[in-house]
Amino acid sequence: MSKQDGMKDGMTYAPVGKAAPVVAPGEFAFAAIGLDHGHIYGMCNGLREAGATLKWVYDPDPAKVKEFCSQYPEVRAADSEERILEDPEVKLVAGAAIPSDRCALGLRVMRSGKDYITDKAPFTTLGQLELAREAVRETGRKYAVYYSERLHVESALFAQQLVQDGAIGRVLQVIGLGPHRLNASSRPDWFFRKEKYGGILCDIGSHQAEQFLTFTGARDARVAASKVANYRHKEAYPELEDFGDFTLIGDNGATGYFRVDWFTPDGLGTWGDGRMILLGTDGTIELRKYIDIARERTRDHVFLVNHEGEHYFPVHGKVGFPYFGQLIRDCMDRTETAMTQEHAFKAAEISLMAQALAVRVE
């Protein structure tokens, strides 16, 4: 399966957008370290489309490096991580290491004087989060997080603009559904090790926490309730959590309910029927992100109902992915337009708290 589509498997989902460079050729070089998750391709696609130059790649597994180089022929394979960290031309390192290793990689990157973007989940423990916060304060570097279910989904970006324009008034509640296809036979061993992946709410739940903060405008939230379960896979994968949900109350009074799971049936034409419903004081927005089941195999369907009427927006290919260009400019200009550091960390903190407080359902 091409790393450029991945519609049957979320682990290889790597959207391709239109070129929208914000820098001149060769002006901003970045590297990839850690190829354990296919989202590294989504990050690299977005950065390259925004004009960044992919200079280096490193992973201890030669097979992963070979496959990566086949996708990006211009990249050079480094013989060590140090080769990249010592290169003054590299301004940003993108990583998709095993989740439990992502923080340590980020600390090394920032202490080498470079900015860092990691796949979600950026941490598997609250202790790692505190280490990263301290390193950001010490080094002044960025620890960015690829929350792809908003940043690389045009329907979510379009909905964000509708909310900012006041289309549904104040957002009171967000309901997020994040089902994923398991494809267990294609998953690496670490995927099934709780210490490595951190738990289902820590992992794919982090997408939901980030979107709650974005759509409601809350700066913080407390976990009112959360639960996890291993309903179907106890014998084969005893450390897997195949179901989880959590409820949030934002510091601005907004609420949210989020469910994530590994139960996408084989008959669905994509890796998960990701949906989101926003309730506002003056209307509602529904997102059907990856498919409109039994109707359209296309992505990015947005439905708006407000005082003016009922509206449908098919936005695939019409919005683009501005985050990557904004991140590049933030790295160069030392600004925070793409996403604030506190927002990135707070989304991770909320999902980690939901994981830590979760009731185990048997």
Briefly say what this structure is.
This protein has 11 helices and 15 strands. With 362 residues, it is of the alpha/beta class.
Which SSEs are present, and which pair or pack?
Layout: E1 29-35, H1 39-49, E2 53-58, H2 62-71, E3 76-77, H3 81-85, E4 90-96, H4 102-111, E5 115-119, H5 126-139, E6 143-146, H6 148-151, H7 154-164, E7 171-179, H8 194-197, H9 205-216, E8 221-229, E9 243-250, E10 255-261, E11 275-280, E12 283-288, E13 301-306, E14 309-314, H10 323-333, H11 341-357, E15 359-361
Parallel strand pairs: 1-2, 1-4, 2-3, 4-5, 5-6, 7-10, 8-15
Antiparallel strand pairs: 7-11, 8-9, 9-10, 11-12, 12-13, 13-14
Helix pairs in contact: 1-10, 4-5, 9-11
Low-confidence stretches: none
User: Mind telling me which CATH architecture of the largest domain this is?
Assistant: 2-Layer Sandwich
Mean pLDDT: 96
Q: Could you say how many structural domains there are in total?
A: 2
What value does the Rg take, in angstroms?
19 Å
Give me the strand/helix succession: EHEHEHEHEHEHHEHHEEEEEEEHHE
Number of strands: 15
Distance between the termini: 36 Å
Major sheet details:
9 strands, mixed
